[in-house]
Amino acid sequence: MEDTTRFKRYLKDKNLPTPWCPGCGNGIVLKSACDAFDELNLDTSKTVVVSGIGCSGRSAGFFNLDSVHTVHGRALPVAEGVKAANENLNVIVMSGDGDLLGIGGNHLLHASRRNMEITVICFANEIYGMTGGQVSPTSRRGAKTITSPDGCQDTPINVQAIIKAHNCFYARSSAFHLKHLKKSIMAALRHPGFAFVEVICQCIVNNGRRIGFKDGYAMLMDYKERYTIKDNVDRLEDNELGITS
Ligand SMILES: Cc1ncc(C[n+]2csc(CCOP(=O)(O)OP(=O)(O)O)c2C)c(N)n1
Ligand SMILES: [Mg+2]
Description:
Number of helices: 7
CATH class: Alpha Beta
Helix content: 25-40%
CATH topology: Rossmann fold
Number of strands: 8
Structural class: alpha/beta
Bound molecules: thiamine diphosphate, magnesium ion
């Protein structure tokens, strides 16, 4: 029988449970990363996870390996420093949309331009979750947040366009599509260059309930309805998930 507890060997038992709210998608992403590490038989003694600040930024501290919980928006330059110091390390960044695309957005332009072998897993929950629900670069047009009470006026950031502008690896998955999420993280980890996985995941407490969802489950069902998985495409439409070539 399949051992469904294998993922735990990648986590620090003493730090569990996580402080994330009931219904949050972050734990799904954390576990999917563990599953991907396990399937690839990743050498954890040669792996470093770097994160910035935010609810999702807490993830680095749960792994049973070397990690850096750095300052807001600076996960990428820290990860680049780690990789530059020792190119034999697997360097993985796990952080939020606000962290990587908002305050750290400029670093994303340059990290992708440099194309160092770094895997980025972005928790794209459409909100600055930790600080109470401010509008983020991935917030949907019309989304009501505490800083956009009449609805967000802006178009969400096109992460795919930024990453593909420098011919880097880009995949989009969701916290509902578990097999696809694991596959996307594995493909990113295997990619010999800068690889970015945008994971659509739910923040019910500081986002979902303000945009009309009852609970985290309802948000996952929305991802099920909203997104279609595409294979062998070089560009994804807004309602598509996939590993682009
Ligand atoms: C320089 C700086 N500016 C602002 C903050 C406050 N701050 C902490 S977490 C956060 C938002 C994080 O949002 P995101 O990266 O999307 O992570 P989430 O909590 O949604 O997982 C902000 C603005 C900070 N810690 N440091
Ligand atoms: Mg966020």
